[in-house]
């Protein structure tokens, strides 16, 4: 199976490598083309533009940083729309809002192409291990055609119906995750300021009803002030903002998520945006930068 892949950031690179390792023929593109070189060493071809990738491949996957990037790759000069046509499918796995997905869907449908949104739950390590959870919505036939690729990149795929539902589900998931991370950070600070061992707190949490992989994986690094980016904080804050906008649309009061978003915004103002989203801990404890 031959696929195109647009966007080789932390997530996209790992996902494309998994496809190559499982025998897929992959043509890659990234705005900074030098990022494609490692993939070429594993057998990938390079497309000079998104349009060139779509022209070559029946199915093209995109994994981009935010709504503006997702729209630019489709609508700009040499973008996806220039070559999408009947019989070709475009799968956007970026985390965007439902309106962005809908705009892309409508444009691709007008050109005769098929569209699927398929944002993922999971960060760098699950992407590397092929353990993502894929939240797809849109053209059912394209979803079924993409299952072999999804099975390589993820541990479970969900088909959620019409375009927009995948984006909404991903924002709800990331809103909960960001709110939890903020509460977790407050707990670590409170334990420390109360004279308690933070490591003992981690041990206690891991034995109780709120034990979860995020606390288990992030906690030890957080108490060492280590924040290697698996999911950049700036992207978590973007998702909090988009989730709050979804709440506005549906008249849902979200004071917990709103407070968490303020903490992530504070962390960004402290220039922590490129670190892992767990670096919100630094904003909560009042540091100017990680030690």
From TrEMBL:
GO MF, one annotated term: NAD binding
Catalytic residues (positions): 170
Gene3D superfamilies according to UniProt: N-(1-d-carboxylethyl)-l-norvaline Dehydrogenase, domain 2, NAD(P)-binding Rossmann-like Domain
Catalytic activity: glycolate + NADP(+) = glyoxylate + NADPH + H(+); 4-hydroxybutanoate + NADP(+) = succinate semialdehyde + NADPH + H(+)
Keyword hit for Cytoplasm: no
Residue ranges occupied by any 6-phosphogluconate dehydrogenase NADP-binding domain in the UniProt entry: 2-161
Described purpose of this protein according to its UniProt entry: Catalyzes the NADPH-dependent reduction of glyoxylate to glycolate as well as succinic semialdehyde (SSA) to gamma-hydroxybutyrate in vitro. May function in redox homeostasis and play a role in oxidative stress tolerance by detoxifying glyoxylate and SSA generated in glycolate metabolism and GABA metabolism, respectively.
Family per record: Belongs to the HIBADH-related family. NP60 subfamily.
Protein name per its UniProtKB record: 6-phosphogluconate dehydrogenase
């Amino acid at each position: 199976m031959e696929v195109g892949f647009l966007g080789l950031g932390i997530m996209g690179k790992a996902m494309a490598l998994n496809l190559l390792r499982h025998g897929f023929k992959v043509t890659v593109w990234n705005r900074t083309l030098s990022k494609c070189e490692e993939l070429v060493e594993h057998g990938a071809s390079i497309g000079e533009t998104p349009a060139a990738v779509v022209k070559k491949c029946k199915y093209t996957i995109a994994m981009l940083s935010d709504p503006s990037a997702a729209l630019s790759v489709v609508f700009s000069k040499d973008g996806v729309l220039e070559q999408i046509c009947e019989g070709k499918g475009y799968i956007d796995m970026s985390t965007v809002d439902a309106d962005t997905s809908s705009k892309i869907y409508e444009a691709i449908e007008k050109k005769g192409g098929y569209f699927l949104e398929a944002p993922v739950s999971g960060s760098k390590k699950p992407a590397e291990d092929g353990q993502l959870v894929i939240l797809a919505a849109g053209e059912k036939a394209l979803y079924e055609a993409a299952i072999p690729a999804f099975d390589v990149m993820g541990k479970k795929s969900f088909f959620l119906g019409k375009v927009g539902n995948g984006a909404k589900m991903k924002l709800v998931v990331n809103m909960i995750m960001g709110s939890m991370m903020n509460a977790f950070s407050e707990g670590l600070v409170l334990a420390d300021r109360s004279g308690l061992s933070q490591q003992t707190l981690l041990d206690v949490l891991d034995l109780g009803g709120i034990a979860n992989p995020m606390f288990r994986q992030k906690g030890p690094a957080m108490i060492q002030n280590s924040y290697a980016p698996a999911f950049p904080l700036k992207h978590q804050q973007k998702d909090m903002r988009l989730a709050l906008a979804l709440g506005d649309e549906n008249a849902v009061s979200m004071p917990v998520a709103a407070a968490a978003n303020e903490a992530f915004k504070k962390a960004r103002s402290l220039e922590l945006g490129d670190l892992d989203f767990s670096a919100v801990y630094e904003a909560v404890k009042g540091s100017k930068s990680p030690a």
